[in-house]
Amino acid sequence: MDRYEGFREFVLARGPALSRTAYLLCGNHAGAEELVQEALAKTASHWRRVRDGNPEGYVRRTMVNQHTSWWRKFGRRERPYADVSEMVGGRPDSSHATTERLVLVTALAALAPKQRAAIVLRFYEDLSETEIADALGVANGTVKRNIHDGLRRMRALMPSIDDIELEATT
Amino acid sequence: MNLHDELGGLADQAGPYTDPDKALATAKRRNALKLTLAPLALVLAAAAAVPFALSGGDGGATPAASGSADTGAMAIGVDYVTEDGKLVTATGPDFQLEGWENGGEVARVPAGWLVTSYDKVRTSPDEPAGLYLLKPDGTIVQTDVRPFDSSLTISPDGTMFALRTGLMKGEFAVYRVDDDGVEKFAAAPMTNVNALAGWLGDELTFYHADESDGSEQAVVSWGVWDPAGDEPFVTEWYPGSPDLTGTLDGTMTFWDERPGNEWCMVRADGDTGDELGRRCDLAMSIGVTMSPDGRYGVGSVKDPTDENAPEMLIFETEMLFDDVASQPIVACGATGYGDTVWLGDVAYLTDGVRMKVTACDVDGNLIETAEFDTMISLVQAYGEV
Fold it and tell me: What percent helix, strand, coil does chain A show, rounded to 5?
């Protein structure tokens, strides 16, 4: 049996979704592609053991660990903007949606990597706190704290985040 | 603004990764390289007593400068790791950590340092991570602890640890560590268990969160098991312990979160599960970092005025339950989101961004501060080191 049997099919099926998560973790295209590539290469190395379990969870976890490691090594690759108007050239932006998107990018960039991972997995992947804790190998309390602190930090830049979401994790 | 929708919209900008051959080529190239290097690694591992990688290349004679903070003049009382994988020790020589290309974790135990590398240091290409014991004289003792996919849960005295094994297949194993190396002595499937929680003396604690009823609030329970005993794995579960935060003298301290976002710090008897005390009025945010022996803790203030850098608080566990009017005190003005390690009754707090370290004792006395350019993590010590 090919030791990589099923790997190609897995990547073709789940690669786009993993790319989306990676993009939210990194905030830029090059970093996201590098992150997915690195995580999938590691997953391929362990494919015989991983394929019968939860390969997507394994890739996701590898991406989070890898991103944290890169963040620690190389620092921020994104620039957290103190003022969103700085991102739109100081001009009033006619597109509310565009402005909100830029605010979101800025707010995500202001997070520590573990907070960012917890926010992305909770509010984009819709994982429960327990699932996030399992995926990240940390206690539920650590997840709670990262989500809570991350949302609070984001809310300083994005007051428009639904209050209910912040309260739900307090 | 709906955060889920906004994140989804942002994620739509991602370019899809659909090139499995590229990932496969990378994996095969790395595997080939490892197979080439594996015999050499085995020879080195078999040579067990080879002094290893002492910084400065002088065979280990170089003591760590006590003022080894990156900024030069400041001393720091705990070991730490730099971004290029150098272990800077507080009281002895520094070491260049093997297998640190993709980072890892280090813990100090009486026998030396337990080093987990996220990559490399393995003798087979299928092994996802390596664990070795770095002894104080620089000797590396390799282990056969692999594969595993969790951080180590180390006993307060630093003589045992547990970890999750099997690439997320729900098993765990327990090991002893001494001067001779690491020896496995127990293992079990993590049936109905979500996570290793910590140690209660020589016993392991676990918790389980049941979300099967579909509600947002999981039903959580905890259990205790003696890995050296003959009893089956965790036969009794006690209700109401979401997150263990520490153990002390046969008691467990944990957060108990209830509907309505009320949370309390609870103390329970480790043998019976009986609740011994409860504090629901603490001015701390949920989630704290306890000292390995459970005597002390650090957390962030519950309602910070500064959104970006919450003030940190410090407390003595006994005091919170003995004096119900007491509150955690300000931790020497430390702020931030970084990790905390404990050395006795002193907490070393990092801000997580500038890697500023503030050492503060449980009475709120500032011991020292330092800022680092290249430090990536502090090293927690367990037991007498």
Answer: 70, 0, 30
A76 pLDDT band, cuts 50/70/90, is very low
Report helix angle A140-157 to A129-136, nearest 10. 110
pLDDT tens readout for residues A14-55? 999 999 999 999 888 888 888 898 889 888 887 877 777 778
Q: Give me the mean pLDDT over the B82-90 stretch.
A: 88
Nearest CA in chain A to B125: A45
Q: Which residues contact A93 (CB under 8 A, 6 or more apart)?
A: A99, A102
- Residue B4 three-state SS: helix
pTM, rounded to two decimals: 0.66
d(CA B97, CA B114): 11
Residue B264 structure tokens: 């309390």
The candidate with the shortest Cα–Cα distance to A75, out of B375, B179, B45, is: B375
Of A50, A27, A5, nearest to A106 (Cα)? A27
Which of A90-99, B104-113, B169-178, B367-376 has the weakest average pLDDT?
A90-99
Can you read off the two tokens belonging to residue B283?
A: 């001015």
Residue B311 · residue B333 · CB < 8 Å: yes
Q: Which residues on chain A are in Cβ contact (under 8 Å) with B164? A: 137
Q: What is the token pair recorded at B242?
A: 């979401």
Over the stretch B227-259, which tens digit does the pLDDT of each residue have? 988 887 887 888 765 456 677 888 888 877 666
Helices and strands (H and E) in chain A: how many: 10, 0
Taking each helix axis from N to C end, the angle separating A7-26 and A55-74, rounded to the nearest 10 degrees, works out to 40
What is the Cα–Cα distance from A57 to B367, expressed in whole angstroms?
42
- Record: contact A69-B118, CB cut-off 8 A: yes
Number of neighbouring beta carbons within 10 Å of residue B23: 26
Closest residue in chain B to residue A8, using alpha carbons only: B20
Chain A CB within 8 Å of residue B262 CB:
no
B3 inside 8 A of chain A by CB? yes
Q: What is the ipTM of this complex?
A: 0.80
Q: Are B150 and A137 inside 8 Å of each other by CB?
A: yes
Which of B15, B209, B377 is nearest residue A140 as measured by Cβ atoms?
A: B209
Q: How many CB pairs under 8 A join A and B?
A: 216
Q: Which amino acid is at B214?
A: G
CB contact under 8 A, B353 and A112: yes
Average pLDDT, chain B: 76
